[in-house]
Design goal:
The protein is α+β, with helices and mostly antiparallel strands. It has helices at about 65-85, 90-105, 145-160, 180-195, and strands at about 15-20, 25-30, 35, 40, 50, 55-60, 110-120, 125-130, 135-140, 140-145, 205-210, 215-220, 220, 235-240. The protein contains four helices and 14 strands.
Length: about 260
Amino acid sequence: MWKPGKPDLYENNGGTVLAISGKDFVVIGGDTRLSSGCAILSRTQTKMCPLSKQMVVAAAGCWCDAVSLTNLLKVKQQGYDSQHHKVMSVESMAQMLSVVQYQRRHLPYNVSPILGGIDQDGQGAVFSYDCIGHFYRESSRVEGTAVGLLQPVLDNQIGYTKKDLLDEASDEQPTLTKKRALAIAKDAFITAAQSDVFTGDSVIINIITKDSIKSKTATHKCSPAASRGSASTATGSTATSPARRITSSEAFNMCINN
């Protein structure tokens, strides 16, 4: 328990990550803002960590814990590749991430990771975790400071709880396409940036398919925040994508006022 005069071991640097899985793809993305209280530490830091051509982990929360966790996953995956001479499946990585977090259960990583990839059946898979490693597979998931705002939206749009999204003739759920999943992800981040001061600047979205990962980078020009409690904001600055992003031939641009 924290007491006055002692340093706080954990700091939430904010940000939002989300993932949506489809029949043969996964859309996973995160913003690039890192905050400390009302101060913005970085506007160009990606929360995406590609582990292979078929899987990406995104983490929001304490950034130093996120870096430590993702680097450990990379080392363990490289050891697996060297020993077994094959790429680790996303199901195996999901279990490994759970074990790594549970080993730190007495001083857990203060992060909310999402693992997205293509499973052994060629279908999209999204795994979400709590702080000590309990995980489960979902069709869509949001983590970070905007989770309370965006998770009901994804449950509504991806889970098709709205009756008008169902096919009235067959009463079946329509097929989720990559185009629609990408549109939902873009709209979700725009909504989050307008309501959450810890989410903003640029957004990096990866589309994972059976063949390759395509990274799409959205550049945002931010105006002064209208939300309460924001002491440090951007005025007319253009956020550039970080160097660690995956090379892509496609890009889209959006403008968010936050």
